Amino acid sequence: MKLSRIFQPRKLSFWILVVLNLLSLALGHITQTYALNGWGTAIVIGLTLFNAMLSALIAWRLVNS
User: Fold this and answer.
1) Domain extent for 42
2) 4 lies in a domain?
3) Is the residue at 6 inside a domain?
4) What is the reported pTM?
5) How many domains are there within the chain?
């Protein structure tokens, strides 16, 4: 398993992974910048967990393809 296989710019899943990483950056910025109430925090945590699981799945598929 080579981690260098993640970089495959001709595949759509690579670009989806890039977008998900940018979403992770935005979610991190939101949590650090804004004081969220309980629901806002729950929504951001849910999105962050979903983003992490989906990113890991896509990265795994890119490495093993």
Assistant:
1) 11-64
2) no
3) no
4) 0.83
5) 1
Give the dihedral of Cα atoms 33, 36, 40, 42; nearest 10 deg: 90
Q: Residues 44, 47, 49, 55: is their CA dihedral positive or negative?
A: negative
Q: Is the pLDDT of residue 2 over 90?
A: no
CA-to-CA distance for 38 and 48, rounded, in angstroms?
Answer: 15
4/6 Cα distance (integer angstroms): 5
**Tokens (6 digits) for 35:** 């004081």
**How does pLDDT run across 5-60, given as a tens digit for each residue?**
788 889 999 999 999 999 999 999 999 999 999 999 999 999 999 999 999 999 99
Count the residues in the chain: 65
